[in-house]
Design brief:
two-stranded antiparallel sheet
Length: 493
C-alpha cells in the first residue's frame, strides 16, 4: 500500500483536487436543491485552491526523486504510471500557473453565470478541464497525452456553446468540435506511426530509438518523420497556428466571454506545455527537421493573426486574432529552447505564457463587464471608458500595451526574452520577421487606446459596473502584470 501512496496518490494530489471537487459538485447537483446553490459556488472555487495548496506541498515536502524513479518491483499498473507521469520542478511550476489562472477564471466565470441555470454544469466541466491541463503538462507518454487532451477538449466543446440564447454559440461549438475531431484523428494516426516504428509510447524510450539514424530509405525513419509532420498539424490545431486557426476566431467570439478568457489563458498555457513535452521530450532527435517547418509556420502565424486583426471591430474577435499572432511568437520561443545537461530551459517561454495569460484573462474580464452593461463587445462600447471609469480604462490600457509589447510592460519583457533566445540559437531571420509583425500589430492595439481616451461617447455615462468580483479579477490580473514586469525573476527569469 505504501508504494501506491508514495508513487501514485501523493504525486497526483493537484490533479485529484480538481477531480474530487468535480465529483462533489456532481453529487450536489444530483440533490437538485435550490438551497445548495450557494454551496455549489463555494465548492467550485475549492478545486483550484486545493490544487495550488497540493502543488505547494509537493514543492516543499515531497522528494523530487520521483522524477528519477525507475519502474520495477511494483504492480504493473503502477510501473506504467511511473513511466507515464513526469513530476519534476518544471512540472510543479506549470501546475502553479494552471492553478492560479484557473482560480481567477473560476471567479470570473462563476460571477458571470451566477443567475443562470447552467452554472453547476459549467463549474463541473471546468474542474475536469483543469485536471486534464495538469495531466497534459506532466505527461510522459503518448497514451496520457491523448487521454488528457480529450478530457480537456471535450468539455470545452460543450462550454463554448453552453448558453442556448447566445448568438453563434452553437455554431462556434460545432465548428470547434469538427476541427478538433479532425486534429484528434491526425494525432491518433501519428501516435500509431510512432508506436509501429518504435514499439513504445513513452517519451524517453521513443527519444532513445530516434537517436539512431532516421534518414535515407530507413522505413522506421520515414515513418518517424511522417509522424512528426502529423504532430505539427494536429498540435497546430490545438495551438491555433496558421493555417490551422480557422476555428479560433469563431470559437472565441461565440463562446461566453469568461469562457473565452479561460480558453485563451489557462488552456493555451497547457497546450504549449504539451507541445514542449512532445517536441523536446520525445522528438528532440528530429529537432532539425521539425524546427525547419515550425520556424516559417511561426512567421506565417504572426502575420495572419496581426493582419486579420486590423479590420476587426468586435473586441473578442480582435483579441482572437491577437491570440493567433501571439501563438506565432510562442512557437518562436518553443523552437529556441535550449538544454543545460538534461534540463530544458523553458523559463522564457513560461514567462511569456504566464504574462500573456494574465493579460488575456484581464482583458476578457473587462470586456465581459462592458458587455453585461452595454450589451455588446464592439469597440464603440469602450469609447470614453478612460473618463467614465478611469481605473478600468487604465487596466485596459495596461493590457493592450503589454499585448503590443510596448516597454516597460511585462509583455515587452516577454518578447525581449523570447527574441533574445531565438537570436542566441541562430534564428535571427525569424526574429526580424517577428519584429516587423509586432509593428503591424501596434496599429490595432492603438485603436483600442484611442477609443478609450480619445473618442467621446454619448452613452458612456450609462455604463454601470455592478459585478465587483469581476472588477477584482481584472485588478488582480493588472497587478500581476505590474509585479512580473518589476520582478521577472520571480518566474525563473
Amino acid at each position: 500500500m505504501k508504494p501506491v501512496i508514495d508513487y501514485f496518490l501523493i504525486p497526483v494530489m493537484p490533479v485529484a483536487a480538481f477531480i474530487v471537487t468535480g465529483l462533489v459538485l456532481i453529487a450536489l447537483q444530483c440533490l437538485n436543491s435550490a438551497k445548495l446553490k450557494p454551496l455549489i459556488k463555494l465548492v467550485a472555487l475549492t478545486g483550484p485552491v486545493f490544487a495550488i495548496g497540493a502543488t505547494w506541498f509537493l514543492f516543499k515536502n515531497a522528494p523530487l526523486e520521483y522524477s528519477r524513479l525507475q519502474p520495477g518491483g511494483h504492480q504493473a499498473w503502477l510501473n506504467e504510471f511511473i513511466q507515464s507521469y513526469l513530476l519534476d520542478s518544471t512540472t510543479l511550476i506549470w501546475y502553479w500557473a494552471i492553478g492560479a489562472l484557473s482560480f481567477l477564471s473560476f471567479v470570473f466565470i462563476e460571477t458571470y453565470f451566477k443567475d443562470k441555470e447552467e452554472l453547476p454544469e459549467v463549474m463541473i466541466l471546468l474542474q475536469f478541464v483543469s485536471a486534464a491541463m495538469m495531466l497534459l503538462v506532466s505527461a510522459n507518454s503518448l497514451l496520457m497525452v491523448f487521454m488528457a487532451l480529450e478530457l480537456m477538449s471535450l468539455p470545452i466543446y460543450v462550454l463554448v456553446g453552453i448558453e442556448p440564447n447566445r448568438h453563434h454559440g452553437a455554431e462556434a461549438s460545432l465548428k470547434y468540435f469538427l476541427f478538433g475531431s479532425f486534429a484528434t484523428v491526425l494525432l491518433l494516426f501519428s501516435i500509431a506511426l510512432i508506436y509501429s516504428c518504435t514499439g513504445s509510447l513513452h517519451f524517453n524510450q521513443i527519444s532513445s530509438f530516434l537517436l539512431a539514424p532516421t534518414g535515407g530509405n530507413n522505413p522506421s525513419g520515414l515513418m518517424a518523420l511522417t509522424a512528426s509532420a502529423l504532430f505539427i498539424i494536429s498540435v497546430g490545431f490545438k495551438l491555433g497556428l496558421a493555417p490551422f486557426h480557422m476555428w479560433l476566431p469563431d470559437a472565441y467570439e461565440g463562446a461566453s466571454t469568461p469562457i473565452t478568457g479561460f480558453m485563451g489563458s489557462a488552456v493555451k498555457l497547457a497546450a504549449f506545455g504539451m507541445a514542449v513535452r512532445l517536441w523536446w521530450g520525445m522528438l528532440a532527435p528530429l529537432s532539425t527537421h521539425w524546427i525547419s517547418i515550425l520556424g516559417p509556420l511561426a512567421v506565417v502565424t504572426m502575420f495572419v493573426g496581426n493582419l486579420g486583426a486590423l479590420k476587426q471591430r468586435n473586441l473578442k474577435r480582435l483579441l482572437a486574432y491577437s491570440s493567433i499572432s501571439h501563438a506565432g511568437y510562442l512557437i518562436l520561443g518553443l523552437i529556441s529552447i535550449s538544454k543545460t545537461g538534461s534540463q530544458l530551459n523553458t523559463q522564457n517561454l513560461f514567462y511569456y505564457l504566464v504574462v500573456y495569460g494574465f493579460m488575456f484573462l484581464g482583458a476578457l474580464g473587462l470586456i465581459s463587464l462592458i458587455e453585461r452593461s452595454s450589451g455588446g463587445t464592439d469597440i464603440s462600447n469602450i469609447e470614453g471608458l478612460g473618463f467614465s471609469h478611469p481605473l478600468l480604462g487604465l487596466c485596459l490600457t495596461l493590457f493592450v500595451l503589454s499585448a503590443a509589447g510596448i516597454p516597460p510592460t511585462a509583455g515587452f519583457l516577454g518578447k525581449y526574452f523570447l527574441f533574445s533566445d531565438a537570436v542566441r540559437n541562430g534564428h535571427t531571420n525569424l526574429v526580424i520577421w517577428a519584429v516587423l509583425s509586432s509593428t503591424v500589430g501596434i496599429y490595432y492595439y492603438l485603436r483600442v487606446i484611442i477609443a478609450v481616451y480619445m473618442t467621446e461617447s454619448a452613452g458612456r455615462s450609462s455604463l454601470v459596473i455592478r459585478d465587483r468580483s469581476m472588477v477584482m479579477v481584472v485588478l488582480a490580473c493588472a497587478l500581476c502584470m505590474i509585479f512580473f514586469a518589476m520582478f521577472p525573476h520571480r518566474l525563473g527569469i
